[in-house]
Amino acid sequence: xxxxxxxxxxxxxxxxxxxxxxxxxxxxxxxxxxxxxxxxxxxxxxxxxxxxxxxxxxxxxxxxxxxxxxxxxxxxxxxxxxxxxxxxxxxxxxxxxxxxxxxxxxxxxxxxxxxxxxxxxxxxxxxxxxxxxxxxxxxxxxxxxxxxxxxxxxxxxxxxxxxxxxxxxxxxxxxxxxxxxxxxxxxxxxxxxxxxxxxxxxxxxxxxxxxxxxxxxxxxxxxxxxxxxxxxxxxxxxxxxxxxxxxxxxxxxxxxxxxxxxxxxxxxxxxxxxxxxxxxxxxxxxxxxxxxxxxxxxxxxxxxxxxxxxxxxxxxxxxxxxxxxxxxxxxxxxxxxxxxxxxxxxxxxxxxxxxxxxxxxxxxxxxxxxxxxxxxxxxxxxxxxxxxxxxxxxxxxxxxx
Length: 401
Description:
12 strands
């Protein structure tokens, strides 16, 4: 919070009212700006439309952080934006968006200003939000004050209608509108609030905390596929375990991973993931998901083994059952579940330390991730496996020499 205060002390001195939008001149470090996002903004601007960088990218730029994603908002209709770019596509039903493509996985998302008119289901969840409006209408459709900031790259101005700048200065998170209603509209906002709290070291408002505790079960209204993408953001970062603890504290975790219960293995794995990210090393969601479901898979194996004579078949069945139960809450692509099963199945092989199996296992494409899994187990819930962990550490060294 102190870091945030120091950044904003001079910039926002004198802000008292949000009756009219605050327009603050800010020149961002060009190294932090995405060149493709600027190309998209300039193209839309030259076509005569109003256009801004918006949301998390503006928030992070103000904090001196390098944004992972750059989103754009404009008064141009999706079809008009689509015509401006040869490589673009219209997506979405509930929210009509345009993805401007720059590579297989490299795209910039462009949204048209939304009005306050939305179509909701009986449970309050938004099912249609394709009524277009003006900038001041679009602001109130966003989730949190700190994410409702717009940046005009040509005037070099940040535009704030709801007090997002003041919240960043104070290190606070407030919902735009009524928290209970906004979480009903989109329950994912609850886990986003938790993630932003840890990322920005900011305090959620008491209204947010109370609404989450009351409405956590609403996550069941969100598609399992969408929750997968959100879970990647929740745990693949530099504050993974803190997010885990907050999700548990507010009753959200059980609606994402009902088979998962906190232990030292999970803490070790989350912190290991964070350390790897800080060091610039690669990470995969398969590893953490395998950790989260390891206990559930083991418990299923113990029960199945009583009826199934074959160790291998019992193991495969236990893996499948744990995964099937999980994807009802948070879906996972097949390549990821296949890697998880490899990690689990290789554990018994690594535990045996069979000399004749050393070379084949070292050559296995899934060895390294399974080895890391074994090491973390030996350092947490299974200290009796330290000998096995040391055995495979030496085997790798001897193989390299």
